[in-house]
Amino acid sequence: MGQRRRGLSEFYAELLTIAFGVPFLAGRPPEVPPSEQGDTAADDTAGDLEARLISGAAVDAALVVLLENQTQSLRLLDRELGAASLLTQTEGILLAGGAGSVGEV
Questions:
Q1: Confidence band, pLDDT 50/70/90 cuts, at residue 69
Q2: In this model, does residue 61 exceed pLDDT 60?
Q3: Among residues 20, 5, 9, 4, which one has the least CA distance to residue 54?
């Protein structure tokens, strides 16, 4: 019995795109028979992987701690204000450009 592969959800595709700075596409990758892949497909995949690894190298321990603290702050605000108020506040910040564009570092 073969293992079923799940596709990448829209939510995680967006998060990974922001985190690594390269586009991640939602859904399952297309099934390409090995006979049709050729060297070009392997080169494209290797180049894409290299770009992702280089982008991922910029994520250091200090950035991880910063993101963990930000997540904890959002949890505390959610408990104090409620999810609806927190969502409205966060959307206002993003729309006003106070936090920069999504994916902007």
A1: very high
A2: yes
A3: 20
Kindly report, residue by residue over 39-51, the tens digit of the pLDDT. Answer: 565 667 778 888 8
Contacts of 36 (CB under 8 A, 6+ apart): none
Please check whether residue 26 is in contact with residue 7, taking contact to mean a CB–CB distance below 8 angstroms: yes
8 SS3 class: strand
Two structure tokens written together for 23: 């586009």
Question: Which residue type does 36 have?
Answer: E
Q: How far is CA 73 from CA 9, 67, 70, 77, 83, in A?
A: 26, 10, 5, 6, 13
Residue 26: which region, alpha, beta or left (left: phi > 0; alpha: psi -120 to 50)?
Answer: beta
